Amino acid sequence: MLKHSSMLASAAVAAVLAGVAAPAFAETLQEAIALAYRTNPTLLAQRANQRALDETVPQARAGLRPQIDITGTAGYSRTDTGGTPGTDFNGDGVIDIPGSSGITESDSGSATVALSQSLYTGGRVGHAISAAEANVLGGRENLRAVEQQVLASVIQSYVDVQRDLEILNIRQQNLAVLRRQLDESNARFEVGEITRTDVAQSESRLAQSQADLANAQAQLSVSRAAYAAVVGQAPATLTTPPQLPGVPSDFEVALDIGLLENPSVRAAQYQLQAAEERVAAARAEYLPSARLTASYGGSGDLTQFDLADRTSFQAGASISIPLFTGGLNQSRVAQAREQANAAQIAIEGERRGVLQDVSSAYAQVISTRASLTAGEEAVRAATVAAEGVRQEAQVGLRTTLDVLNQELELRNAQILLTNARRNEYVAQALLLSAMGRLEGGDLDPTIELYDPADNGDAVRGRGGLPWDGVLETLDSLASPPVLPANDAPDAPIDAQLKSDIVKTAPGA
């Protein structure tokens, strides 16, 4: 634990100091994604939670298997019978004489082996198994959602570091230009070409530029620390990230994919399936159940260490038919039914959430793309204007303030362009995440994927016996069918609502 904490502390320190001494090696976005995919604590914890959830399936299947118990008892008893008073017939008085008295001690022990095997539960075990399997599938979708959140954080932290590095370079260049401008202003003041006011304006802009540079350095340190937290190491010299694969150019296509593949929607559908299985299991409480029982045991005197003095063997079959439970079964069915209705409604809520997320992300992609185009044109025009103003100032057609203002406008345009590049890339990543297509394999086909089904398949048959399948089939006979929830719409999403959103989408 201490070693792990030291490693994290070292990574944090390296992230803060990286602005002073940046590593010489280059790092790609795919490498950052691969490292986070293997080591990110949030993702690793969710995988562990999923493996824990996998264990609910063999736990549910244990209802098909016999239970064997060994019971041992030991006892000790002591009986003390006191003396009986007597009479002295010689006249010397009444005295106590020994009567019938004694101490009786005994010990005993017993050991019993009992076996119980369910033959039929009315479907309770079968529906419990199905509910557990549905929960496991829903958990895998939740794992997908966490994976996409982590990878979106990796992408955002990656481009944040790149953005802040570029802004830092812009601030450094601006500081160098303003220093030259101040030197030039001092020289022109010495020969009487400009006034002291012009020099003060240059000094003011230089001081502001120094403050902006300090802020840029601090922001870069913050972004580096965030990168180290999500990726697991301080950022090196980051290369230009590649184009994200699968970014749609049609809003309706993006929406259809999101409604079909978004992990939150799919997890909600599995939760509904599990809830409906629990309804069927609750209804099975009305049905009879049958089981076999057998026991063998012996008892005897412990002092002889022999428990075979008296042995017995019992075997039998029992059938239990519930006749009256005081309304308990009815209440449980009603409760499970309402939980299934809530799960059905939750699906619609998740679908509407996907509609909102996809719509928002797609609008951001369109907006940032337009901002990027405008930013490129603004930088081009501001560069030309800045050069022209500097030349005009040299021949007296422009003031020092004009030069300073145009330099400020150029740097602001460059920073806006840098932010636009970052925002477009992040918006594309968020769009893919809302669609359910921002997984490790989507971003890097060469990554070694973690498949949660491997562990689920490995533990599903834990403790299995050859007759599990027979008993599972027997338990399904005459068991209550799974009934769909009936208090929410079955349509994927209201068609008119979807049509209205598509019509108002950017570029529609």
Describe the fold and architecture.
- The chain has one domain: Up-down Bundle (Outer membrane efflux proteins (OEP)), CATH 1.20.1600.10.
- Helix content is 62%, strand content 12%.
- It is built from 14 helices and six strands.
- It has a four-stranded antiparallel beta sheet with strand order 2-3-5-6. The chain has a two-stranded parallel ribbon with strand order 1-4.
- Helix 7 packs antiparallel against helix 9 (328-394) and helix 8 (263-283) packs antiparallel against helix 9 (328-394).
- The radius of gyration is 39 Å and the shape is elongated.
- Mean pLDDT is 85; it is low at 1-25.
Write a compact overview of the structure shown.
The protein has helices at residues 2-17, 29-39, 41-54, 56-61, 124-190, 196-231, 251-261, 263-283, 328-394, 400-435, 440-443, 452-460, 468-476, 495-503; strands at 26-27, 67-81, 102-120, 237-238, 289-300, 310-320. With 508 residues, it is an alpha+beta fold.
How are the secondary structure elements laid out?
Elements: H1 2-17, E1 26-27, H2 29-39, H3 41-54, H4 56-61, E2 67-81, E3 102-120, H5 124-190, H6 196-231, E4 237-238, H7 251-261, H8 263-283, E5 289-300, E6 310-320, H9 328-394, H10 400-435, H11 440-443, H12 452-460, H13 468-476, H14 495-503
Parallel strand pairs: 1-4
Antiparallel strand pairs: 2-3, 3-5, 5-6
Helix pairs in contact: 1-6, 2-5, 3-5, 3-12, 5-6, 5-8, 5-10, 7-9, 7-10, 8-9, 9-10
